[in-house]
Amino acid sequence: MERVFPQTELLKTAEDVSVTSRELFNQGRTNLPGARRASVVLQQRRLDLLNAENKYAEAFRQLTAIIGCTTR
Description:
This protein is mainly alpha-helical. It is built from two helices and no strands.
C-alpha cells in the first residue's frame, strides 16, 4: 500500500492540473501544447497508479502463497 497511496495523490494532483490547464486554454491564457502536456501527464499518472496497484496485488498473492493462507 505504501506505493499505491503516493500514486493516488499524484493522480489527484495531475487531475487538478489538467482541469486548470483546460480552463486556462479555454480562456486563452495558455497555449494548446501546455494543455496537451497536462493531459499526457495525467494519463501517465493513471498508468503509474494502475502499475502500483498491480504490483501490490502481485505481492499480496506471493505472500499468501508463501504463508499458505487463502483470501476466500
